[in-house]
């Protein structure tokens, strides 16, 4: 009859239960990782509303379709975004890029009024729809909505490394436990049982002298060691009975008694020495087995660390690729911010130039009417000296009015032209800083015109710089507009002071305002990208970040800032007067 191994049966049952539990736990961990990552991507899509809604809303409001397309391309470049749909206030699609679904089946031509998450579709796409609200003169107008799409593939791609790690970890632990169970069952159950069985099968009742079951478990309190001890005790008892019988016989043979006693002593001494030698051999065998187990554990640890090192290298490569993508996206956002600032400058200058041009048109029309009246009086021969003198006086006043207003328009256009060219160019040229600061302030006067805020400039008249003029224009435009929008919020009359000091090869600029200032937490994040105190109200959070990069990288200088709530904001900027061309 075929005998089934007890140790193999126990090992099979234990490992079966462990495999099932490990498989269920691993599946649960993978499922939890997938849903957590998907929820995190949904939160990223919702966060993008705060980052891009302001600039995209302004682009649609100003009917700047090209800028809206550029912003949509920038959004599509974000790793978490796989598709985008932008609609205007009529529900018409302006652009749809990447993978997407037909949202008209869900919303029709109606615009969404608040942020809505799209559930996962059969195609694996899910997303987030949010409205575009433009605030103007205290009124909020919805100009469209945006739908951002992500997909199941992006979620799986993000958790791929984690899945591999979970599976590898489960396989590693399973392999280790299998080997551990195999060694333990072999050492503590299979081999001792085989040894006992073999010794019992070879036992001969006619030759009990010196027979003893030697077990590796003799030093451990186990059932096998107890069984071996009991069997040896039984053998010794039988031997004792046999010895007693032999002693009785030996009493009849007095001549052989001493010889038998000597033989017994010698046999006991040999047995004792043999037992000591067996004990030493067993200790050596156990030490060898322990060394083998430790060596195997060391090999497994080395292999595990090698896998972890490979995973870290792969993760580092992915992070480097992600950093490159973020840098490209940041460059696009910076260019978009510059174009948005230039658009605001154009709108302000256009509004400001309309006044002198309108006065010039009115004066020209008035002068034309007076010339026609003079010509008619001359033709009718009713022209008197008094009428001619009155015409000359009115014509002179009109000419003076035309000249002053046209000069004013010319100055505004000249300032705008130079500032606009500088803001879109990185060319290095020589400028007179005092005059250039006045041109920058003049180009921003439309924004300060309806306020009582004052700007004071203290700069040497003959101070010249050789540098990218666009960087100077962008820096002071950002600082002045930040003071107006953020620092002077809810203030009737603010003061801005710009002090420039000539210090040999360098210049030292102190820019300060008496606005509401920043607390320590806001001050620490001031130069971080996308940090703004006007989140959701048109602020992109790139102004101070662009200023910081222009001073440190473009002008090769330094910039420091300090502030306290209620005590304004103070910048300290320092850079060389001449940069290598």
UniProtKB/TrEMBL annotation:
One of its GO terms (molecular function) is ATP binding. It comes from the Bacteria. Its EC number is 2.7.13.3. Keywords: ATP-binding, Coiled coil, Kinase, Membrane, Nucleotide-binding, Phosphoprotein, Transferase, Transmembrane, Transmembrane helix. It catalyses: ATP + protein L-histidine = ADP + protein N-phospho-L-histidine. The keyword Transmembrane applies. The chain crosses the membrane at residues 15-35, 161-185. SUPFAM superfamilies: ATPase domain of HSP90 chaperone/DNA topoisomerase II/histidine kinase (SSF55874). The keyword Ribosomal protein does not apply. Residues 231-339 form a coiled coil. It is found in: Membrane. InterPro entries: HAMP_dom, HATPase_C_sf, HATPase_dom, His_kinase_dom, Sig_transdc_His_kin-like_C. Residues 187-243 form the HAMP domain. Its main location: membrane. Residues 348-579 form the Histidine kinase domain. SMART domains: HATPase_c. This is histidine kinase. It comes from Alkalimonas mucilaginosa.
């Amino acid at each position: 009859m075929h005998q089934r191994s007890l140790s193999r049966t126990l090992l099979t049952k234990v490992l079966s239960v462990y495999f099932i539990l490990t498989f269920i736990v691993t599946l649960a961990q993978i499922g939890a990782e997938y849903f957590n990552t998907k929820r995190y991507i949904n939160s990223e899509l919702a966060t993008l509303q705060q980052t891009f809604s302001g600039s995209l809303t302004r682009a649609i409001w100003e009917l700047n379709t090209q800028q809206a397309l550029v912003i949509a391309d920038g959004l599509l470049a974000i790793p978490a975004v796989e598709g985008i749909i932008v609609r205007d206030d009529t529900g018409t699609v302006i652009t749809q890029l990447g993978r997407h679904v037909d949202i008209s089946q869900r919303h029709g031509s109606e615009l969404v009024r608040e942020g809505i998450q799209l559930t996962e579709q059969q195609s694996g796409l899910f997303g987030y729809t949010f409205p575009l609200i433009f605030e103007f003169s205290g009124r909020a107008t919805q100009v469209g909505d945006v739908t951002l799409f992500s997909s199941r593939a992006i979620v799986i791609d993000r958790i791929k490394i984690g899945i591999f790690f979970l599976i590898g970890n489960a396989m590693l632990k399973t392999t280790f436990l299998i080997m551990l169970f195999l060694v333990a069952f072999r050492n503590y159950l299979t081999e001792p049982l085989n040894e006992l069985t073999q010794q019992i099968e070879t036992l001969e009742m006619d030759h009990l002298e010196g027979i003893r079951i030697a077990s590796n478990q003799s030093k451990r309190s186990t059932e096998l060691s107890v069984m071996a001890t009991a069997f040896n005790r039984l053998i010794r008892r039988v031997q004792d009975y046999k010895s007693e019988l032999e002693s009785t016989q030996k009493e009849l043979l007095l001549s052989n008694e001493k010889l038998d006693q000597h033989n017994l002593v010698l046999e006991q001494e040999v047995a004792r020495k043999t037992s000591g030698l067996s004990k030493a051999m067993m200790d050596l065998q156990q030490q060898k087995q322990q060394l083998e187990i430790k060596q195997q554990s060391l090999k497994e640890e080395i292999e595990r660390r090698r896998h972890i090192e490979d995973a870290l290298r792969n993760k580092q490569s992915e992070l480097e690729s992600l950093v490159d993508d973020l840098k490209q996206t940041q460059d696009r956002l910076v260019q978009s911010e510059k174009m948005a600032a230039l658009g605001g400058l154009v709108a302000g200058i256009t509004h400001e130039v309309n006044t002198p041009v309108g006065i010039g048109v009115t004066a020209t029309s008035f002068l034309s009417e007076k010339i026609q009246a003079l010509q008619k009086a001359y033709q009718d021969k009713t022209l008197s000296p008094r009428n001619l003198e009155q015409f000359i006086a009115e014509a002179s006043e009109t000419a003076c009015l035309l000249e002053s207003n046209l000069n004013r328009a010319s100055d505004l256009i000249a300032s705008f032209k130079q500032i606009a060219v500088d803001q879109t160019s990185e060319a290095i040229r020589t400028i007179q800083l005092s005059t250039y600061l006045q041109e920058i302030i003049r180009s921003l006067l439309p924004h300060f015109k309806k306020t009582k805020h004052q700007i004071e400039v203290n700069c040497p008249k003959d101070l010249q710089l050789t540098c990218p003029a666009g960087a100077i224009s962008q820096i002071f435009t950002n600082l002045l507009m930040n003071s107006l929008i953020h620092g002077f919020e809810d203030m009737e009359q603010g003061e801005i002071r710009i002090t420039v000091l000539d210090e040999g090869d360098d210049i030292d600029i102190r820019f300060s305002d008496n606005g509401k200032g920043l607390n320590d937490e806001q001050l620490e994040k001031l130069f971080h990208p996308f940090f703004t105190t006007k989140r959701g109200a048109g602020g992109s959070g790139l102004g101070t970040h662009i200023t910081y990069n222009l001073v440190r990288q473009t002008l090769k200088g330094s910039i420091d800032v300090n502030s306290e709530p209620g005590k304004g904001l103070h910048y300290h900027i320092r850079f060389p007067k001449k940069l290598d061309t």
